[in-house]
From TrEMBL:
Protein origin, superkingdom: Bacteria
UniProt source species: Paenibacillus tianmuensis
Name of the protein in question: YmaF family protein
Record-linked InterPro entries: YmaF (IPR024307)
Amino acid sequence: MDIPVTGFVVHSDGEDPRHAHRLYITSWDGRPVHVHPFSGATSYNDGHLHYYAGMTEPAPSNPRHVHGYYAVTSFNDGHTHTIRGVTGPAIPLPGRGHYHYFEGYTTVNGMRPHAHAYKGNTGNEV
């Protein structure tokens, strides 16, 4: 089954050593897509915490959708962690828009290997 997708590719200035282009999807199966900002702090473990921020992956605008997310934490105590997961379903906001709940555990890292818990809500859709 083919699903029509529209979008565009932007050439970056080479700041990201992993890839030189960014793909922006603007519609999926005829429906506009959107993203959400997210940010927060991890739990305090092994004498420190980490901060994270990012944008969710695009998703179609429909009532029961979810978003994937990914971010690398701040560099604290000589290391970073990765967070990755899928949000919960859309939670309507009064008036207009919605947000999503997310939670999980970071990857294990550090001189004394450990992970951190994290949880929060995304911002409103963009």
